[in-house]
Structure formats: structure tokens, C-alpha cells
Design a protein that fits this description.
Layout (H helix, E strand, L loop, with lengths): L4 E5 L4 E6 L13 H13 L6 E6 L10 H8 L5 H10 L3 H7 L5 E5 L3 E2 L1 H8 L2 E5 L3 E3 L13 H9 L1 H10 L2 E3 H6 L5 E3 L4 H13 L3 H14 L4 H15 L3 H21 L1
Parallel strand pairs: 2-3, 3-4, 4-6, 5-7, 6-9
Antiparallel strand pairs: 1-2, 7-8
């Protein structure tokens, strides 16, 4: 049986996770994708050689979100509200926590429509790059439900409350150009350039100091909810650690050696 998620790592430590369940348009629920993503996140967290992560998908659709037949199952008489709540808590709701807690940078390379939970999956990442064919829809209201996977937390932080409300209350999709204008994605590229663009960006991150990247990401996360005073205190603590790393020492030595060589050549 083909895995619903492929895991590939290059020589610089960039991991590419590819959603691979085209028969359901890469639906997250009822396909094993969530479980495979959780295993991948755990693997990444325990592997210090990983420097960055790209999340993309096979086929023309990034992700269709939740499967309607799964929703039909939950409507049935065997599922009361308490059971459904626990399914969410111990199922798909583990995914936003796992992705958000990754210490390395994450890039969503959105190859096509990202619908419902698929849209929210892109927002769980630090950066989004879109193919010209990509669209984004916070479409839960279209099927009479709410964003149960953290979308109401992620989306306003990505595009602001007013635009998040517009997307959430109408359920209508926005195209890649609008997503770029709204700051949802950082760039839009032709479909054939999507993965190479994401890989180039990830590699630019991967060549930097791994401890510095991980701590910088943590500071960016904390800065979204901390006071300035608390963030400055945490920054000082992190800086005191990072100044003592081998990576920082090597960079400073290289800089000073080159400076000394320039002086010697002028003398």
C-alpha cells in the first residue's frame, strides 16, 4: 500500500513532506495523512540534522480538508457530541500542535486548492509559497461546521482579523494573487517552479547556524503573545546561550581571519 505521506531529506537537512492521497484529493481525515504527519513531526523533532521542512502535495489539489463521508459517519446515531469532541482532541487537533511546535522553519509549497483544513494546514507553517493554480478557502461554513483544527487561531495571525473573518464567514475561496496581496503567501510562482523555489528558500535557511535558526523561530513565536519586556528577557537568555555555540565561534573566527588578511594585503 502506498504511504499517504512521503518523507525525503536532502544533503543539507531539508525535509520534504508530500501529501500523497490523490484519490481523496489529499483529504486529511480518514486517509492516514494526519497520523503520518504526526509521525513525521516526531521524527523531525528527534533528528538534529533536520534544518527545514517543506510541506507540499501530489496531484492538482493541495488538500481538500475533511472527507464528507467522515462527517456523515459522525452524524450517525453511534456518535454523540462527547465522542466527536474526543475524536477531534485526539485526532486532527494534534496536528496543529505538532507542526506549530517544530523548532525548524516550515514552508508550505501550495500546488493547488487548499480547502478547509487544507487551508489551515498551510497556515500552520511559517511561510507559504503558492503556485499560480493555488486557491485558499476557509470553507467550513459551506458544510455547516466550524474550523475545528485551529484555523480560528492561525488565520487571523496570518492575514489579520478582518480578512480572516471575511474568509471564515463567507467560506469563499481566494486566488493566489489575492493571497499574495493579503500577505497570506510570500510569493506566487509558476507551477513548474513551485518546488524548486521552496527548496531554494529552505536551503538558504539550512546553511545558517541551526541553533540560531531554532532560537530565532522560538522568539518569533513568543513575540506574538509576550510583552516586549518579557521577550527582551528571553532574547537575552537565548543570546547568552548562542554566543557560546561552536557555530557562532566559527563564524566570528572566519570573519576576523578575513579581516586580518585584508589588512595584511594592504600593508
Amino acid at each position: 500500500m502506498t504511504s499517504p505521506l512521503s518523507y525525503e531529506q536532502d544533503d543539507l537537512g531539508v525535509v520534504t513532506l508530500t501529501l500523497n492521497h490523490p484519490e481523496t484529493r489529499n483529504a486529511l481525515t480518514g486517509t492516514g495523512i494526519v497520523e503520518a504527519m504526526l509521525e513525521a513531526c516526531d521524527r523531525i523533532e528527534h533528528d538534529p540534522s533536520v534544518r527545514a521542512v517543506i510541506i507540499t502535495a501530489t496531484g492538482p489539489i493541495f488538500s481538500s480538508g475533511g472527507k464528507i463521508d467522515e462527517m456523515q459517519r459522525q452524524i450517525g446515531p453511534d456518535y454523540n457530541s462527547a465522542v466527536i469532541r474526543q475524536e477531534y482532541r485526539h485526532g486532527i487537533q494534534r496536528l496543529p500542535l505538532a507542526i506549530h511546535q517544530l523548532e525548524v522553519p516550515t514552508i508550505a509549497a501550495v500546488n493547488g486548492p487548499a480547502i478547509g483544513a487544507g487551508c489551515d494546514l498551510t497556515c500552520m507553517c511559517d511561510i507559504r509559497i503558492a503556485s499560480e493554480a493555488a486557491t485558499f478557502a476557509e470553507s467550513f461554513v459551506k458544510v455547516g461546521i466550524v474550523p475545528g483544527d485551529g484555523g480560528a487561531w492561525f488565520l487571523p495571525r496570518v492575514i489579520g482579523m478582518a480578512r480572516a473573518a471575511e474568509m471564515s464567514f463567507t467560506g469563499e475561496a481566494i486566488d493566489a494573487k489575492t493571497a499574495l496581496d493579503w500577505g497570506m503567501v510570500s510569493r506566487v510562482v509558476p507551477a513548474e517552479d513551485l518546488l524548486s523555489t521552496a527548496q531554494t528558500l529552505a536551503r538558504k535557511m539550512a546553511v545558517n547556524s541551526a541553533p540560531a535558526i531554532r532560537m530565532t523561530k522560538r522568539l518569533l513565536r513568543e513575540g506574538q503573545q509576550s510583552s516586549l519586556a518579557n521577550l527582551l528577557e528571553l532574547s537575552a537568555a537565548y543570546q547568552s546561550i548562542i554566543h557560546k555555540t561552536d557555530e557562532h565561534a566559527a563564524i566570528v573566527k572566519d570573519f576576523m581571519d578575513k579581516k586580518a588578511a585584508r589588512r595584511a594585503s594592504k600593508g
